[in-house]
Design a protein that fits this description.
This protein has 329 residues and is α/β, with parallel strands linked by helices. The chain folds into 2 domains: 283 residues, Alpha-Beta Barrel (TIM Barrel); 38 residues. The chain is built from 12 helices and 13 strands. Helix 1 runs parallel beside helix 11, helix 2 packs parallel to helix 3 and helix 10 crosses helix 11. The longest helix is centred in the first third of the chain and has 18 residues. This is F420-dependent glucose-6-phosphate dehydrogenase. To bacterial alkanal monooxygenase alpha and beta chains.
Amino acid sequence: MTYDLSLLDKSPLLAGEPASAALQRTVALAQGAERLGYRRFWVAEHHANPGLASSAPEVLIAHLAARTQRIRIGSGGVLLPHYSPYKVAETFNLLATLAPGRIDLGVGKAPGGLPAATRALRRLHDPARVPPFDDLLRELDTYLAPPDDASPPALPTPPAPPERFLLGASPDSARSAAERGWRFVFAGQLNGDPRAIEASLDAYARAGAEAAPLLAVTALAAPTSEEARALTDPLKVVRVTLDDGQSVNLGSEEQAAEYARQAGAASYRTEIRKPHVLAGTAEEVHRELDRLQARFGVHEFIIDTPPSATAKRLASVTLLAGGAPALAA
């Protein structure tokens, strides 16, 4: 079976190093992905997280596009509720003008940080008038339309518009993508439950989607199964649920406690979960990708490498490229 592989990078920091080192590693990884034949290289958006250096994907996209030649560069994704859709359209039209035919606009609706960072990002927003995400997406679509169809136009007009992706992990997000003509990316690196994947991709198809969906997964390939497991077995996800019913996944119990404090919650509870990770030799990881493709009909995977394997990322993506049918061809 044939499928494309793409990469998602959060620019994680190793202990004690400056953020500049993490960003230099991201550049090297993008250049390596291009040499290896990966289809896309996406960067994430996270705020006030001392372990991650990627807080402004649009800036990093411009930097990466200038240092690569062929691979598509994009956001995985811009967190639209924080921003003006008009400004997002202007920014990505400019990027698509600088790197014609190579820019992807991926958007999502997660906050990307703890409540204090969200409040700082939305300082000028009226909390009583938070627009629904679908309204923001519809407005963004309007500004990404040809200049004659949008008022005011989001200039410059690129030779080819950015390709549009909606990242989500629910049937509602999948339906929104299909109804707006955006490609849907199921965030399996956040929720790898096969039932959730199936429900969302089924909703996407039933809503009349024309383009094939993508599936993001957390994956690590190593020379041996034992090495891969040693790097991924310690991983955990802490799901915190506040007293108002709001739930979010975080990386540690300390982060969960801080999230509850910043949210002003009187009480909260946590649940430790094991994340879904495809780990093993390249052959073992590709067997899992083959299985996912056969079950869900996905023809492109977005690979997210776990932070515990930051120093092993390039080795992992090199091993995976060697076993990927499309890349090998």
